[in-house]
Write a structure and sequence with these properties.
Length: 303
Amino acid sequence: MLKLSLLASGLLLLGAAIVAAGGSPATSDGTIADGDTSVAKFTSGKWKQTFFCTFANSPTDCGFQVQEKVPGRATIVNIGRDGGTALRLHTEPGDDYVAGSATNERDDLWLSVPETDGYQGREQWWAHSILFPTDFASPPSGFGVVVDFHNASPGGGQAGGQANFHVDSSRWDGETLHFRGYGGVLASSSDTPGEYQVTLGPIVKNVWYDFVYHVKWSSGGDGFFQAWVNGVKKLDHSGPTLYRWNGVDQEVYLKLANYHTAFGQPSSVIHDRVIRGTSPLAVSLGPLEGVLTLIDGVLTPLQ
C-alpha cells in the first residue's frame, strides 16, 4: 500500500481509534476535532476527517441503519481495506419489498442527512472502498447499485426515484461499473434532470476498488462532482448535483448498497473505509491524478 507521511499515517490511526471508541477524528495539527459534522474550510497545511467508519464491530457502527428483509443479511467479515474488518451486504432471491424496493432486492445501509452533511452549498471530500467477492453477481438484464447519495425531499418530489449520484454494478449490462448522477430544478415530481454518467468497465472480483469523490452539493450551476477510482480520475462533472423542487433545495444522504433487479441469484458486496474530510489528504490512501502525488514517499498536494 502506498504510504502517507509518518505524521499523516499516525493521525489516521489515531483518528480510527478515537472514532471506534465513540470520539472524534484527528486533525493534521495533532488536535482532536470537535465532532461537528459540518464541513470545515481547508487551511493550507491542515486536514480534518469529519466522518470515519471501518465497521470494527457492527453494521450499525458510526450511525448507519440497516434496510434488509432478513435480520443478519448485513454482517461484519474478517477482511478489510483499512484494518481487519469490513461490511458484507448480502441478498438472497426473494429479498424484495424492503424500504420501497418493490420487486427489486435490497440489503442496504443508510446514513442520515445530518451525518452525511448533505446540504445545499456543502463542499466535501469522500472516500470509500468496495470489494466484489467471489459470490458477487449482478443482473445481466437489469440494474444494480452498490453506493448512492440519495435525495431527501424536504420540498416534495421524488425525481422519478433517481438518487443524485450512483455507483452502478449493472445498467442492463451485468457486472459492469458505472458512475451516474442527476441534479437541477425538477419540472415535475417524476423529473430526472441533468443526467451525467460514465462507464468504468467490467467488474474484477476479489480486488479492492478505492473511490474518492470531491463534490459540491448544489442545485445550481456552481455544483460539481469529481471522482477517482484507484487514483485515476474518471469523472469531472460541472453543474447541478442536488434537486430543487417548488423553490426548495433538496438534500442527500449516503447509502452503502446491494440493491438490484431480482434475477434469481444470491449476491454479496463488501464495503469498508468510509471517510469524509476537508481535503484529499484527509481521505485518500494514495496519489490522485491531478491532485496528490508521492514525493520521497510522502503524499503531497500538487497545488
